[in-house]
Amino acid sequence: MADAESFGIEKGYGKQAVDWMNEEAKKLDLKFEARLYDYEISTKNFGNFEMFSWIGGSKIARDLVIKASKRFRIKVIEGGYTPIRLVIKVSSRNEYGIVRKGDRVYRTDRVYIFAINK
C-alpha cells in the first residue's frame, strides 16, 4: 500500500460500493473506473478491507470513495499516507493510512497492516 494511492472498502461491501462508484462516475460524466481485485488487507485496529484498483484522477477517486463511505456507512482506507511529523524524520518501515467512515477520520497513525491474499 505504501508509495501509492490505494483504496480499500470494508470487507463485505466491496462489490456494492465499487458498482455504485462506477454508476455515479458515469452519471456525473467523470473519467473513473474501479474494479475489485482478489486482495484483502487486515488491520489490527480497524478490521479487514477489500482492495480495489481504479483508473482516473486521484481527486475523483478520493471523492467517490468518501461518498461511498457516507452512502453505505462503511469504513474505507486510503494508503500511501504519511503524517506530517514523519516528513521531517525518517521513520521505520511501517505502513500508514487514513481510515474513514463518512466524514469521520479515525486515528491516522500506524494502521498495522497484515496482508491477506485470497
Features:
alpha+beta; 118 residues; seven-stranded antiparallel beta sheet; 7 strands; single chain; 36% strand
Q: How would you portray this structure in words?
A:
This protein is of the alpha+beta class. The chain has one domain. It has three helices and seven strands. It has helices at residues 14-27, 58-72, 84-88; strands spanning 7-10, 32-43, 47-56, 75-79, 97-101, 104-105, 113-117. Strands 6-5-4-1-3-2-7 form a seven-stranded antiparallel sheet. Strand 5 and strand 6 (104-105) form a beta hairpin. Helix 1 (14-27) packs across helix 2 (58-72). The longest helix is centred in the middle third of the chain and has 15 residues, at 58-72. The protein is globular and about 35 Å long. It starts with 6 loop residues before the first strand and ends with a strand.
Q: Structural class, from secondary structure content?
A: alpha+beta
Instruction: Give the overall pLDDT as a whole number.
Output: 79
Strand content: 35-45%
Major sheet attributes: 7 strands, antiparallel
Task: Please provide a brief summary of the model.
The protein is α+β, with helices and mostly antiparallel strands and 118 residues long. It has helices at residues 14-27, 58-72, 84-88, and strands at residues 7-10, 32-43, 47-56, 75-79, 97-101, 104-105, 113-117. α1 packs across α2.
